[in-house]
Amino acid sequence: MKPTHSLTRRHFLNRMAAFGGTALASTLLPHAAKAGGDLTVGFIYVGPKDDFGYNQAHAEGAAAVKAMAGVKVIEEENVAETVDVQNTMESMINFDGASLLFPTSFGYFDPHILEVAPKYPDVRFQHAAGLWSADLHPMNVGSYFGYIGMGQYLNGITAGHASKTKKIGFVAAKPIPQVLLNINSFLLGARSVDPEITCQVIFTGEWSLAVKEAEATNALADQGCDVITCHVDGPKVVMETAAGRGAYICGYHANQSPLAPEKYLTGAEWNWAGVYTGMVQTVLDGGSIDNFVRGGLADGFIKMSPLGPAVSDAARNQFEATKAEIMKGGFAAIKGPLKDNAGNVIAAEGEAFVESDIALESMSYLVEGVIGSTS
Amino acid sequence: MSSSADIGIWGVPLAILGGAIRVSTPFLFVSLGECLTERSGRINLGLEGTLIFGAMAGYAIAYESGSAWFGVLAAALAGALFGLFHGWICRFKGVNDIAIGIAMMLLGMGLAFFFGKPYIQPVAPDLPAISFGWWSENPQLRAALQINALFLLGVGLAIFLHWMFRATRIGLTIRVVGDSTDAARAIGLNPNRVRLLSTAAGGALAGIGGAYLSLYYPGSWNEGISSGQGLMAVALVIFARWNPIYCLWAALLFGGAGALGPALQSVGVTSGYYLFFAAPYVLTLGLLILASSPDKALEGAPGELSITK
Questions:
Q1: Cα distance between residue A81 and residue B172, in whole Å
Q2: Can you list the alpha helix ranges (DSSP code H) found in B40-137?
């Protein structure tokens, strides 16, 4: 309901802009801002920026940018994936003089960024997901993302060693490629320890639904899943509920170990600080950011939480060995022979999809051993 | 977790039972509060805002004081203040209680988001649960029967309110005021004061519902904690025909139906989960249609209520 406020305010401001002459608003102000030697960077979050999760990870990156000289950072939280975000972007451009925007949520891209970007060719829009394509989309829009599936693969290794019931659980928001890759990687990591392990997935249908996430976690625990991870915006509820039911937990997005240190195995975290300061520095130096930016553990795009006290020595050894392997580059979690959970062949013997393979960004299947369905 | 493996399909009824107990409490408190307010002839649509503010206030005070029960008390107090404010504005001539309610809803949310910012990260103490599953060897059943004291309080309250409306002087007073302002004035009652107090009490109950959300289940404060439960609970009152006992059943039904989607996925019924997530709403629509009748429309509705007048 909160966006209603900003909707009206933004509407009002935009109206004012229309009355005052679009020319004044869209050209004069940004240039005036630039003339001062300052770069204004806008960050937009779909939820609160201290949610122990997705938004917090981005906000930590924004905080690093804030510390740079000659840069002004503006932020807005709780912006819905509706026309609200278009209004927020336009007002950041027209009234704050922002020329580099990070609208961070997945659903901001289509149609919202695509609607606004062509109107402001001088403004750069950076979107954190793999949706941009050179043939279809404006050139002032860029896509960046990290191979966090590798982090879930490492999570899976610790889960595989910790699980006694041979059932692990995953609370997922929506069946989009990045989420599916995380689920599959989590299971395949666990299966690298014990091929008998299965992973039960429950989709909640939304990025942030506290009660449903708690219900899903309880349902997983009821079915005997004894290691649980998730891909929702704020993992706090899942982590606390799972630990309360006696399950081990693997984190996601940010470090959730303070919530249940005894039960926390490890976690796949974003490391946006380096990425964002790098991009902003490029702009400050007068360069332009690549439209397609990707990176993994080795590039410092993602990191792993420190291993928890419940991680055994065997698990620690395999974790460190695999991590070293991934750091070398060219590691493949999805490799043949592999079938999906409907029996279709995903990869034949000898075939492998390395972490940087673009085919992984349109993943639409759950691998064999994952109990769940994408629709 | 020795005997925990493979309860298989039994997970579904178990999840519905557990869900009914875990998820229903906020619905129950908000709908009982709204039932009390509407019986006095006013609608307070602001309870969604009160619920969220209660969740924030309860969490913040529990964290600051170290006691979850202090948090519940603070949430009830904050809820009562919201109710008093609503009741006070509505006494003026020409003020529409529904419009004020919507304004109060947005105000409650805005204030909760503003003051709640520093409390998203910290971990506050939880309300204790009472184990009613000690007789069972089955860990899943024991988990489902972890019942919070607030749930039991809510059940007791539903029975108490039912008795109060039926058999006490206070109950009669509220009903008279709710059914006819003129009749109430004629027998020397002050309708505005009765409504003010009823709205305050209703707000306090909604505040407690909020404290349950943030202090027990799901047990943390964030801005998306309610996801519209307060609004649904207000609708439940109409569904429950302004009867506190029916409010209890409606809340249980809603809680149980909400657990259906995740539970079905967990036993392998994996397709069409969006449809199962709509189960509570489909159920409500179905029951409303079944219970409707052209002859006795809105039976039990207070006569002074602005939606039935």
A1: 49
A2: 47-65, 68-90, 97-116
Residue B70: Cβ within 10 Å count: 15
Output the pLDDT for position B129.
87
Residue B268, pLDDT score: 77
Residue spans of the domains in chain B: they are 8-308
B contacts of A372 (beta carbons < 8 Å): 265, 270
Which of A50, A51, A215 is facing B262, going by the closest CB pair? A215
Q: What is the greatest pairwise CA distance in chain A?
A: 68
Q: What is the mean pLDDT of chain B?
A: 89
Name the residue of chain B whose CA is nearest to A372's CA.
B270
Fold of domain B8-308:
ABC transporter involved in vitamin B12 uptake, BtuC (1.10.3470)
ipTM: 0.86
Q: Which residues of A touch B120 (CB under 8 A)?
A: 48, 50-52
pLDDT, one tens digit per residue, over B76-125 is 999 999 999 999 999 998 899 999 999 999 999 999 999 998 898 888 89
Read off the amino acid at residue A37. Answer: G
| Structure tokens given for A54 | 């997705």
> Is B48 in contact with A1 (Cβ distance < 8 A)?
yes
Q: Are B237 and B298 in contact (CB under 8 A)?
A: no
From A212's Cα to the closest Cα of chain B, the distance in A is 8
